Amino acid sequence: MARQILGRQYDGFGRSVQFHPSTTYENFIGGLAPLQNGKNGEEGLGFRFAPKPGYLLEAAAQAAGSQQPYLLHIDEINRADLGKILGEAIYLFEPNPESLREIDLPYDFGQPFHQRFHLPDNLHVLGTMNSADRSIAIVDVAVRRRFAFLSLWPSFEVVQEHGCTLSQRAYKEMVSIFVEHAPDEALALVPGHSYFLAKDQDEARANLRTSLAPLLAEYLAQGYVSGFAESIRGYMQWLESL
């Protein structure tokens, strides 16, 4: 959906990046990076360090040079430590600021900001994340209040359009178990509709056994569905019998 928004609503004017546990402030905002001395290494020896803009600075520079809205899509936004990555730039993400907000950068990154950085009004940031992944820390409160959040739930309409009869049945029974038995904190763990998009019965059986069943087994092992474990086990036995 994020890629469709970028392509359709922004006419492709923007970019997608992905966060991971090793993403740093230097990757996102900017920092010093090694450059080889001389052209193609033919002149001079060794390396020197020069300021290199990160994803946000590059996106802001592109947005500043246009009147068209620009979208920076950050996939897996919760897989990195946002507090460290944003640093002082968290000040720029305050919603509805009373005036232009700027920060001083540690280095001169050249045009158009040099060492004084602000977010252009036409720069939009969209983060996507899987809130069901319990192995990843949630977004901290200071960052969370600077973003608007929208939860997207599995859609039976998508399964109807792209899944076979078996996929549709498996989806309905899976969702029914969670709706009937899961407490509020476990509802976010309901498997998404991507597990149920096989177009024929054989493909559906393979997907359910090799993708969905291991996920449910992990839920049981971690105790995420302890309140309705027997219902999940019964569902898994049905998958094995297909």
- Percent range for helical residues? 25-40%
Please indicate the percent range of residues in DSSP E strands (runs of 2 or more): 5-15%
Contiguous runs where pLDDT drops below 50 for at least 5 residues: none
Separate helix tally: 10
Major sheet size, sense and barrel closure: 3 strands, parallel
How many strand elements? 7
Please give the oligomerization state of what you see.
Answer: single chain
Rg: 23 Å
Average pLDDT score: 91
The class by helix and strand makeup works out as alpha/beta
Annotated CATH topology of the largest domain: Rossmann fold
SSE order: HEHEEHEHEEEHHHHHH
Keywords summarizing the entry:
242 residues; alpha/beta; Rossmann fold; 2 domains; 3-stranded parallel β-sheet; 14% strand; elongated
Descriptive overview:
The protein is an alpha/beta fold. The chain has two domains: 2-144, Rossmann fold; 156-241, no CATH class. Helix content is 39%, strand content 14%. The chain is built from ten helices and seven strands. The chain has helices at residues 2-9, 25-28, 55-64, 82-86, 141-144, 156-162, 165-181, 184-187, 201-222, 229-241, and strands at residues 14-18, 30-36, 47-53, 70-75, 103-104, 116-117, 123-128. The protein has a three-stranded parallel beta sheet with strand order 1-4-7. α7 (165-181) runs parallel beside α9 (201-222) and α7 packs antiparallel against α10 (229-241). The protein is elongated and about 65 Å long. The mean pLDDT is 91.
